[in-house]
Phosphate acyltransferase
Amino acid sequence: MRIAIDAMGGDHAPKEIVIGTEYAARNNSDINYVLYGEESEVRKYLTDDLSNIEIIHTNEKIEADDDPVRAVRRKKEASMVLAASDVKEGKADALFSCGNTGALVAAGLLVVGRFPNVDRPALMSTLPAFSGSRQEFEFLDLGANSDAKPVNILQHAILGTHYAKDIRQIENPTVGLLNIGTEENKGNDLNKKAYNLLRDEPSINFYGNVEARDLLNGLVDIIVTDGFTGNAVLKTMEGTTSTMKKVIADAILSGGLKTKLGGFLVKDAISQLGDSLDYDKVGGAILIGVKAPVLKSHGSSKREVVEYTLEKTKNILLSGVIDHMAEAFSE
Amino acid sequence: MRIAIDAMGGDHAPKEIVIGTEYAARNNSDINYVLYGEESEVRKYLTDDLSNIEIIHTNEKIEADDDPVRAVRRKKEASMVLAASDVKEGKADALFSCGNTGALVAAGLLVVGRFPNVDRPALMSTLPAFSGSRQEFEFLDLGANSDAKPVNILQHAILGTHYAKDIRQIENPTVGLLNIGTEENKGNDLNKKAYNLLRDEPSINFYGNVEARDLLNGLVDIIVTDGFTGNAVLKTMEGTTSTMKKVIADAILSGGLKTKLGGFLVKDAISQLGDSLDYDKVGGAILIGVKAPVLKSHGSSKREVVEYTLEKTKNILLSGVIDHMAEAFSE
């Protein structure tokens, strides 16, 4: 089993990518890790001479501000594109990058390729739920496909269901549709049509509409929405969380001695907050609907996140979920 | 000047509506307040015999779970519909309700009526901004029109600009488009087209795209988006805020003595948080694009909020903003 790693993507590449990869490789001698990037740079950060780490040299890379589709089409020798090509050709089984998200979506779609009957892949993250019996839920599409059709949302619901079954071991996962009301006839034209498709699909367990204010309340295992709304909602969560932390900090700073003392005492409780709602820090995102696992972590990822995401990539490969998705969407 | 008030709409109607109206009437002897509702019920809560309060009796009312358009069409004698009819006929100048939001939007659109060249009205709220030089911004559409066309977003930007000029005294208010990236070509088809219309419109001061994570950062005076996204984003803010308050409370409760003591000391600082992001509590919403001020406060509104929103209604009437909007959208 081989995992192709874009060693040059991310704010701390190649250093943190390489070190995180070595962490993962030490614990998984049966898995091969292939680092794509500037060989001398990559080699600098390898301390052991592990037989399950390989380097594929290239000078080219995709920058954070490159136009995604153009970069993937033109920079054939970029580390991310070479890695994706090797996945396509069966020389590797999965792709991991901390680089340009749009470019990774394009590389997944244009190079690795989608399942024949999946019209558009989706970006999916596992987000935390804070009440009820669920501690997590899958949320998609986070922005791979901003002009969704109803059938895209249906396909994403089926893909998410397979993921929740195989990776999170939920027998009959529930699917909710993000909407602006809970009743059946709520929402815009897209979501009214998506509702009907989801309701009539026998292979999923459809719960109904879920309002945005209940997103974090653990009502269902999977929440589907179009990529524009998903991205806007996710970034609203991040922005609201960071604003609130600032507001609390300001209120404490401008308070009296009593409040300042209190602030000092609850500092740790408050600082955990931001991270729990920052999807990048809770495990990155997976591009779902393509023929192999394509995983993404935040540009700011350090070695621990890289190692964690590579473990997750391994688990996805071992679970057989890609085969199950392929069967569901075979012709 | 006469303000028509739906005395029967809201969780605490008619009691809190009537008492709040009396508060407002005491301070504004030159303005007439007309309460629509069950006369004996309404009279019960009037303590003074003010000459500027009038009651129009009706037995019918719109319930919170009524289908909005059907209720407005069929319940001709409902307090909200009677009040709207009197605005349409020039017997009153503005409409206020704490009742069913969808029904109020329908009453505004179908009874009060829109400006000839405004295709769809929008729900707009003033939200708090937490950094930069701005303390507030206008956010629309919050859900009056969930299937928006690019031209609707343009019209809403022009309406919002008039509001910011006349009500908030901003000379040349900036308009941002909520989008999933800041570059010109970002977003779905709707927002790419809306961007071009906004950029080319001489009567507004277009800033460009604003990402959802920057919503609360005070980058612009007005943020426009379609009603589906606006509603989803607003409810995400509310849900995230309430989740975070719960998470902080839990972290403090489950912490050691030190953390518990700290929690006690910062309690006030934290409890202010929720309210500052709950748009209903910071002034309700206005239905913009119709021929008269139509204002809405939350169903849970108490007398202070009713009084506050009636003051706001008066200021809108006195500002001349409705005339300016009418001119901008005259044929």
Summary: Chain A has two domains: 2-118+289-328, 125-283. Chain A has a mean pLDDT of 92. The radius of gyration of chain A is 21 Å. Residues 227-253 of chain A form the longest helix (27 residues).
